[in-house]
Amino acid sequence: MKRVTIIVIGILALLVQIYESRAQETLPRLGVRKWTITPPNMRGTGSVAYARNADLFFVGTKHGFVLVVDTKQGRIIDTINMRDYPSVWDKIKGLSQQRVVNMGLPGGV
Q: Mean of the pLDDT values across residues 25-50?
């Protein structure tokens, strides 16, 4: 009986891990800050980011904010103060609208 209980707990733990990994791929969700938005030379710093497949539109403003727009829902889901990330802000200030896959990858902002 004890062995069966341990096996059941192990299977449940595995299922939870699978569910969590799938949940991360379906971001964004409000308040979830999981993935990095920083360029490669800033790895290891705290940052905000979103799933590559999230179909987001990033709109930069001249005041140092990036509005994160969910194109499927057609609404702003987050606002990022880019002055908290100076090296990223230097790269995007002056840009107006740009569609990106991930701001930390080549081809992004």
A: 45
